Amino acid sequence: MRAFIALGILLGCFVVQADEHDHMYEVNEEVVLWMNTVGPYSNRQETYTYFSLPFCRGPKETIGHYHETMGESLLGVELDFSGLDIKFKTNMEKTLFCKKTLTNEEYKTFVYAIKNQYAYQMYLDDMPIWGMVGEVDTSENPPRYRIFTHKKLEIGTNGKQIVDVNLTTDGRVELRPNVELEFSYEVTWSKSDVKFHDRFDKYLDPSFFQHRIHWFSIFNSFMMVVFLVGLVWMILMRTLRRDYARYEKGENMDELDADLGDEYGWKQVHGDVFRPPALPMAFASLIGSGYHVFSVALITTVLAIVGEFYTERGSLLSAAIFVYAACAPINGYAGGSMYARFGGKQWIRQMLFGAFLLPSAVCGVAFLINFIAIYYHASRAIPFTVMLAVSAICLFVILPLTLVGTVLGRNMSGQGDYPCRVNAVPRPIPDKKWFVQPWLICLAGGILPFGSIFIEMYFIFTSFWAYKIYYVYGFMFLVVLILAIVTVCVTIVCSYFLLNAEDYRWRWTSFAAGASTAFYVYLYAVYYFLFKTKMYGLFQTAFYFGYMGLFASGLGLMCGTIGYVGTAKFVRKIYQEVNKFD
């Protein structure tokens, strides 16, 4: 991991130096204004190409643009040359660049866009600019729809670099069939004291992300960690030591202990506690994928802290794809070694299952949503060439690296070294009280981990589904660490209760108890959709719930793996002393 972080720092320094050099202009040098996408303001993820609306292009010849990164393609970035003539540090008075008489069809298109509060995005020197298509006057019946036909760009410079861009829209014209629209623009330049590397600070919202509620949530989660660590410590230091002392002295239980016999039940299953779980191939593959997701989450978050990905289009997604591919050996090593310890023989099938478990889920959901995006002619429709590139990464990068990790895992950590011998015949599981049933333990296990992150989920959801740029990755890193600690503590307590009930099926239970956090996150996503957004329609609904399902699934894999790994160390620890008393 240190190598990845060091590489990220070096790449970040190189990119910053190259980026500053690429954004130098001379007086009267052309500055390109790119028109990106347009779509409902209530959902910035539903986007269409800017000229899908009947806007006019400027008089200059079209300049082609290609996607610089895979992240740009997957995020639906579709830059189109505006055709407007803009020169560095050269003011432009109000200039008419197009006249257009609306047909009845074009009139309906603009009315639909304004009625649904369509906003467009532009880029000038890689700085994003947002504007509204028009406005609705609801004071009259029927309402009147007006379109903005004039754009005024106010550009700030520091030396030879552009450091600030503001857009003002005006020229309100009421829409009606056969109306003639006159589109114009205006450019004014001024000096600014903003430094080049600080020019994106204007898009950040410290009052939102660094609100006292955000700090309070971190403190609240930290106190939860202290409480849970203390609870686990109490179990280890008091309850278990008392149990060890009783077994060591060989004392008989009194009547009170007989009534609470389940308190010492974990000792009775020492011959079955390390028995391989049901469906060992699926379990090992899930654990390997969870290791993979957790590694990607940590490394990508650290790189985001170092690299300020919000200054480059699609850079965060591109970095996540690169890190996911590079971390594939972790998946193979964890899953392959665990499957070998379970005594599995079909290691190639397990390797394929683990390598394609998460990519196949992502591709399946994206493929279905892509059909809807194509039907709506949205820019979110993934090009066929990008699909081929993703498939090539899976087949020629992720699969070979997973194979390498699997071979290493089977040979280096494939031998089971358990402190207790596994009985040949499984021990019958006695009837349990309702509150120690595995399904209830699993369902309750995700409540506290979700409670430690749900406020951070609000900030993440708002930045993804609304017009906020998430930049407080230091908060995210702390939240991930807190989530890991809380999940480990909760699953240890859940597994201890299960073992006390003489039920040795702790492996799947510990994984499911941690993974159930995803269930509550998805429920919160449903609440957020209903009460915090104004999304509607098939495309927005499918896009939201499809990708929120993928997010929750990845989080579930990560939390389930963290819970299982922590519980496995706990179980191994408490049974190391058991053989002394037999």
Automatic annotation (TrEMBL):
Query: Looking at the record's lineage, which domain of life comes first?
Result: Eukaryota
Compartments where found: Membrane
Q: Does the keyword Methyltransferase apply?
A: no
Q: Which residues form the signal peptide?
A: 1-18
- Which residues are listed as membrane-spanning? 213-236, 291-310, 316-340, 352-376, 382-408, 439-461, 473-499, 511-530, 542-565
Q: Which GO terms describe its cellular component?
A: membrane
Which InterPro entries does the protein's record reference?
EMP70
- Which keywords label this protein? Membrane, Signal, Transmembrane, Transmembrane helix
One Pfam family, short name: EMP70
Q: How does it sit in the membrane?
A: Multi-pass membrane protein
Primary location class: membrane
Q: Does the keyword DNA-binding apply?
A: no
One GO BP: protein localization to membrane
Family as reported in the entry's similarity comment? Belongs to the nonaspanin (TM9SF) (TC 9.A.2) family.
Quote the protein name from its UniProt record: Transmembrane 9 superfamily member
Q: Which organism is it from?
A: Mesorhabditis belari
Biological classification of the source = Eukaryota, Metazoa, Ecdysozoa, Nematoda, Chromadorea
